[in-house]
Amino acid sequence: MGKDKKKKEKKSSSTEQRTFSGSLALSKLKHVIMKKKNKKGKKIKMICIPIDANFLIEGKEGAVYMPIRVIAKNEEDQFGQHGFISQSVDSKMWKAADDELQEKMRDTPILGGIKDWGFEDKSSDDSSGSMADGEIDEDDDLPF
């Protein structure tokens, strides 16, 4: 009986895992929707997100990162969500910024909600909100 008890103790884990899901509304960042030709010459719709205007970070090997903040709550809100994801600013970038730029950095958007799948599902879609109106042609100048 002692061996069985030891086997059960090994199988149990003190680490608890929770699964969250959500979506990011990229249109809440400074952006432009445009159409460009692909390899086959067909125009495809795309979103262009400027790196500097959105306080993104360029990493190694061409990677581009967006610092985020996740706020998780134990109860659902009125939209059936358990928290949200908002854009954040890298601490090095913040410290190097002057007062005027820090004021702009404070105005980062909430990008979407999160759902904790340990709770009952009351799905919500937060795809609203756009920081750029309409579309521009590929020959037009970008508005940022």
Q: Output the helix-strand order.
A: HEEEEEEEHHEE
Count of distinct strands: 9
Provide a count of the helices.
3
Largest sheet: 4 strands, antiparallel
Count of individual domains: 1
Radius of gyration: 21 Å
Instruction: Report how far apart the termini are.
Output: 71 Å
The helicity comes to: 10-25%
Low-pLDDT residue intervals, each spanning 5 or more residues? none
Could you explain the architecture of this structure?
The chain has 144 residues and is an alpha+beta fold. It has one domain. Helices cover 16% and strands 26% of the residues. The protein contains 3 helices and 9 strands. It has helices at 2-11, 91-96, 99-105, and strands at 20-22, 32-37, 43-48, 57-58, 64-65, 68-72, 83-87, 110-116, 135-136. It has a 4-stranded antiparallel sheet, with no helix packed on it. It is globular. It starts with a helix and ends in an 8-residue tail after the last strand. The mean pLDDT is 82.
